[in-house]
Amino acid sequence: MLGQIARRRLGLLLLLHGQQRLSNGLNGVSFNQLLSKETHRHTQSSFNTSSPISTMSLWPFSFQPRDFSLPNSSWSPEMCKAYDHYNALCDTDTENGEEKKRAPWKKLPSYNRSIKYATGGIHLSKLIQAKARLFTRNVKEQGATFEYVVFVNKEEKSCVCVFQAGRLLEGAPGHVHGGAIATMIDTVTGSLAGYLSGPIMTANLNLDYRNPMPLGSVVLIHSALDRIEGRKTFITCKVTSTDESKLYTEATALFVSISVGHLFGSRN
Ligand SMILES: CCCCCCCC(=O)SCCNC(=O)CCNC(=O)[C@H](O)C(C)(C)COP(=O)(O)OP(=O)(O)OC[C@H]1O[C@@H](n2cnc3c(N)ncnc32)[C@H](O)[C@@H]1OP(=O)(O)O
User: Fold this and answer.
1) Atom 25, ligand 1: residue with shortest CA distance
2) 91 is catalytic
3) Which CATH number fits the domain that encloses residue 191?
4) C-beta neighbour count of 239 within 10 angstroms
């Protein structure tokens, strides 16, 4: 029974991982408003995971999970400006208090974990560990590694990520590590593929590094759907400066749709 509940939750997790059903509810909120909210939240750290069993919820998500893609004090003015630009595109037009047209842009929230506790089933507990965290969202020091926010455009089947590369991502002296860039490209193209196609895994990722990316840079990661063929979702990607005058990296990615069972070792 517990195993069944847990499997159902995992199905939900995978849907949410594709981030199809989440809305941020932040449209129209300015950077400064967000920053003051975030600073307040930070004093009530979300990193403490040692809740006693009696306080564990049957609902697998924290009541107020921290959205790591909201502005924080480590964001540079350039990062804030790009955030404000795309966040403004998420606004819904209203006329006389009534919604006129829903904007095609939507900010995707980003959490460092999806399931709070592994509640049952030997396979599930192997798969989901209580201390597991999303790779890009597990460093306490804000701004030290991956600071990013993803905006998707449903109509254009594309997305833009604003990414600020922190000091712990150094590869070549003074520049961002190619693996860190690949991580971000996998994350962004994977978010888009998941948004469009549901549960997926990366099957293939091809990268061309065109120019070295200085550490601390703010860049845009543009991803777009190329095509969907059966279970295969093909995504193209390019990483540019925020004014798009400089090309850093180009990529193509293939994602294959999977069933929940795939993560348990089943190929059905
Ligand atoms: C919010 C954060 C988002 C983060 C997103 C990050 C996502 C990830 O990083 S996932 C981790 C990295 N990826 C993995 O570990 C995946 C490991 N690989 C696998 O599990 C499997 O090989 C998997 C799922 C990709 C495909 O396996 P399976 O489901 O059996 O499909 P399979 O039948 O082999 O292939 C399906 C189709 O894809 C094609 N295909 C599979 N792999 C490849 C590949 N590497 N290159 C080209 N084509 C491929 C096959 O040829 C087949 O094509 P067709 O339907 O035309 O015959």
Assistant:
1) 203
2) no
3) 3.10.129.10
4) 28
